[in-house]
Specification:
D-Maltodextrin-Binding Protein, domain 2; Arc Repressor Mutant, subunit A; alpha/beta; 3 domains
């Protein structure tokens, strides 16, 4: 039974990574071991699970059906193991974390270093991407997301909050009248940062008039927060960004917040995890560490 579980884990890792070498890295074993385990599984089952070429692998129909049944079985085994490990109370094992690119680079990566120093028996894989990952399919233990969640199939823990603000450099504002109302933005060069579909409007809260929408005609639009912020720092115009993304620039005065009286509502920063997984000690310990630093956002 132990050999079959090892074979199934190797097979699942190859399917998730779409690579034998990457699967071996995730499992912490030699590539030849993964190849042997998957080959033994196919021989025991008497079917071909994976089509292999020099450049890629693909699931066969039996392989896809086996993967569908294999995943929940391994999840239940992992949950049972985690439940037993919790009795010892020591975080250990592999922890896979996903986070937005800039947020992860600025705030999460340093905390991962601290976490690894506190818990030497934990191995962390940190994936930074602005796309929405599928936690179950990609084997992610916990993901940090900014904004309100629409997926009811996930469990969320609020860690803190941030806010969208408008910023511009002193060089851009020099010789220009800073906007006093949202409508004044039409007279300025605008920088739009978006993670999915390009934004068509910015919304503002006005103490007297309620919510105000401003239609956008951006001079520069990008899906890279780094590019948007860099352009603003160079005097390119007014950018809408998350507060945590420019905290350092605001402190040193290289960027200035404008229209502060029309700031947006607080946006939650949340940790999410699949409902079919036990919240292990390593996840709890990691989230506690992150939450302790949420004031920085």
């Amino acid at each position: 039974m132990a050999d079959r579980l090892r074979q199934m884990r190797a097979y699942l890792a190859v399917c998730d990574a779409r690579s034998f070498s990457e699967a071996s890295r995730r499992l912490g074993v030699a590539p030849s071991v993964v190849t042997r385990l998957v080959g033994a599984l196919e021989a025991d089952l008497g079917v071909v699970l994976l089509q292999r070429t020099t450049r890629a692998i693909a699931l066969t129909d039996p392989g896809a059906r086996f993967l569908e049944r294999c995943r929940p079985i391994l999840a239940q085994v992992e949950e049972a193991e985690l439940a037993a490990q919790q009795e010892r109370g020591v975080p250990r094992g592999r922890l896979t974390v996903s986070a937005p690119l800039l947020f992860g680079r600025m705030h999460l990566a340093p905390l991962v270093s601290d976490f690894l120093g506190l818990y030497p028996d934990v191995q962390v894989e940190l994936g930074l991407t602005d796309r929405i990952v599928n936690l179950i399919e990609e084997g992610v233990d916990v993901a940090l997301r900014i904004g309100r969640l629409a997926d009811s199939g996930l469990i969320a823990r609020r860690l803190g909050s941030t806010r969208r603000i408008l910023v511009a450099s002193p060089s851009y504002l020099e010789g220009r009248e800073a906007p006093a109302r949202p409508e004044d933005l039409s007279q300025h060069r605008l920088i739009v940062f978006h993670t999915a579909a390009p934004e068509r409007e910015w919304r503002f809260a006005d103490p007297e008039r309620g919510m105000i929408s401003v239609q956008l005609a951006p001079r520069f639009s990008t899906n890279s927060a780094d590019a948007a912020i860099d352009h603003a720092l160079r005097g390119g115009g007014i950018a809408s960004v998350f507060r945590y993304q420019v905290a350092g620039a605001l402190r040193d005065g290289t960027l200035i917040e404008i229209l502060r009286g029309h700031a947006s509502d607080e946006i939650p920063v949340q940790a999410i995890f699949p409902t079919n997984r036990l919240l292990s000690n390593k996840v709890r310990a990691f989230l506690d560490l992150v939450e302790d630093h949420a004031w920085q956002w």
